[in-house]
Each structure stands twice: as structure tokens, then as C-alpha cells.
Amino acid sequence: MAGGATVGSGRAYRLDPHTLPARGFAPVGDEAGSAFVIERERAIVRRASSGDAVSVPVADYRGVAVRMESTGDDGEVRAFVELLHDDASLTLRLAVTDDPYEISADWQAWARALNLPLLVVGQDGSIGGPLAGMGGILAARPLPRRRHSFFADRRPRFLTRRKAGRAGEPARIAGREIIARD
């Protein structure tokens, strides 16, 4: 498989975000699943059940999500990195491992490679937005640096406070002309 490789005993699976296009296979429940190719601008999904291919722009995906499931009563955890789409049949599995610490580098690398936000899927299936904080620091989109960036396409900066003049009737001045003569 170009761009991806299985690792270990078959329980781990990893596509490399640094070698795009990446090719993989996404099982869907007990069905045959689908083969896919991920490029920087689009993902091509070929469904095995119907044989049709769907080209989806990467911008249509919600983000790169990490999901953790417990595999048994002994406390083992399996971690998944997925390219998350609103349509579950278009969600693509990028990495699977039994070591959750190993998965964070791939999660961030895929988000950087595809320019998508990082998402977290909770145990109840809820999807959290991009991580909102790091310690005591809130991480959010930065505000525009300049107050006048909103008006950049409209008026020059020094004219933003000025009002346009009103054209009225010109004033008539009446009087005698004074000329200085010796």
C-alpha cells in the first residue's frame, strides 16, 4: 500500500500523513467496507458494495478526530484517528493502535497536513470542537490585529472617521468690492 502500512500484529493500522496521496481501506461494520485515497484537496472513496467512487473535497470534512474505546474488562484502550464527515459512510480511518500515547502525533500531523481542526469524540459519541484550552491559557481564533481591517476594501484608514459632505445650495455673498488704491 503506498502511503500507508499496517504495523504489528494486525491490530494496529497507520497511514502516513507525510506521504500524500495515502491509500487505505475502511471497514464499515460487518459489510465489505470501502477503499479510499486521500490527497491534499480531496478524498476519493470507492465503495466495495456498489463499486461506485465518490470524490469528496477535504474542506467538507469536519476535522481530524481522535476516539478511544475500551477493548475489554482489563482496562485496555484502543485509539482511533479518523477523518470525520457528517455522513458516517464517508468517515475514513487513518490510524488505529492499542497505545493511546502513540496516536497523538499522528492526530496532529493529519490535522496539519489537511488543514483541518482537531476534534475529540467522547465515550457517549459527542463530538467536541477543537481543544479549547491548554492549562490556564484559552486557545481560540485570534482577533484581527487592526481595528480597521474590516474597512480595508472600502475606504482608506484615515477616512473611516470622516463623514461625507452634503451638497446644498451655494451661499450668495452680496456686498461692495473693496480695492486698496493709493
Could you characterize what this model shows?
This protein has 182 residues and is mainly β. It has one domain (4-131). 8% of the residues lie in helices and 34% in strands. The protein is built from 1 helix and 13 strands; from the N terminus they run βββββββββαββββ. It has one helix at residues 100-114, and strands spanning 4-7, 12-15, 22-26, 34-38, 42-47, 53-57, 63-70, 77-84, 92-97, 118-121, 127-128, 133-134, 137-138. The protein has a 7-stranded mixed beta sheet, with helices on one face. The chain is elongated. The protein starts with a strand and ends in a 44-residue tail after the last strand. The relative contact order is 0.13. Residues 1-10 have low confidence and may be disordered.
Estimate percent helicity: under 10%
Strand order of the largest sheet: 1-2-9-8-7-10-11
Content of β-strand: 25-35%
Tell me about the biggest sheet? 7 strands, mixed
Q: What is the number of beta strands?
A: 13
Our count of helices gives 1
Helix and strand content put the structural class at mainly beta
Morphology call:
elongated
Q: List the uncertain runs.
A: 1-10
> Rg from C-alpha positions?
30 Å
* Sequence of secondary-structure elements: EEEEEEEEEHEEEE
What is the count of structural domains?
Answer: 1
The overall average pLDDT, rounded, is 75
Tell me the distance between the termini: 105 Å
